[in-house]
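hey so i finally got around to running the thing on that chain from the lab meeting. sorry it took forever, my laptop kept dying and i had to restart like 3 times. anyway pasting the input first so we r on the same page abt which one it is
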Amino acid sequence: MQKWNLLDSEFVINHRWCRVRRDRVKLPSGEVVDDFFVNVRPDIALVLPITPEGNVVFVRQYRHGVGEVLLELPAGAFDPEEEEAETAAKREFEEETGYRLDRLNKIATLYDNPVKDTNRIHLFLAEDVELSGTQRLDRTEEIEVVLVPISEISDKIRSGELCVAGTLAALFLVLSSRFSHPFVNRGVEEIIFPDE
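ok and heres what got predicted. didnt touch it at all, straight out
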């Protein structure tokens, strides 16, 4: 498997909120593609926060790209050349939720949409998070904090209430590796199989 050869590249949109690059590439077959468009996007730092009581801290907010109000894990964009992923994750989590965390554990780094986007999602686990104050939201943000017991997550996935890819990846990676079944009662580590 060979990489494509980049012949030329130029930004067709270069705005702080939207950067689109037009690449001219030569494929391994020798064919030249004059207009392969790439979205140059910031990386995302995403936190899977669990309270001492075994609740996952989610945020519910409107997402204009799809025109829907969605339930997802707290996350935020950052420039990896200017800031460490862990620093961005901590800042975004505390600003969006008003909760405090002491320590982050890196789960994984995933590509968001490698066909057309340049960015990665950095997934972190934060345990024993506690409410410490109030949210500090940007002017375009309206965020509701929602606590969901771990035992209810599978039902929310099945119903489609949890449907954001990065959120689902973090939930499955952490909860399925931590326990013998991804959705358990954290207090006794008892497997709970939701009613079918």
